[in-house]
Each structure stands twice: as C-alpha cells, then as structure tokens.
Amino acid sequence: MMSRPLDTDPEAWAIYNAVLDRMDGSKRLIAALELSDTVREIRLAGLRARHPDLSPQKIVARLVAEDYGIDLPPEK
Fold first, then answer.
1. CB 62 within 8 A of CB 51
2. pLDDT for residue 39
3. What is the pTM of this model?
C-alpha cells in the first residue's frame, strides 16, 4: 500500500483503501484506467487554458512531449 497523500486525512484514506480492498482485479484495472483518462483530460484542459492559441493537435503533441519526451512531427 502506498503512503497517504499529505492532502488526505487519515479517515478518508482508510475508506479509500477499504473500497480498493473490496474490488477484484478487473474492477481495480477499470478504476485505474478511468482515473488515468480523467487525469489526462484535466492536463489537456490545463494546456488549452494556458495556450489558447495552439491547435488541438499541438496541445496533444505538447502532452506527448511532456509525458514521453517524444516530439511529434509538425502538422501538415
């Protein structure tokens, strides 16, 4: 089990872990994938807010560069 985040009180952390403990493997995987998708959408929204002049393709390219260190080819 990972340590409790500093912004989470102990009771909430215990409840969160109890919920995870009741999930089987497939439900945990689905929850992890959904959380990952949500975090990516939040990051994309932040990039769009900070760079309203960039096209959707350039926003995604910036996210890919930040996450993987890969520069995508320029738009055509």
1. yes
2. 95
3. 0.72
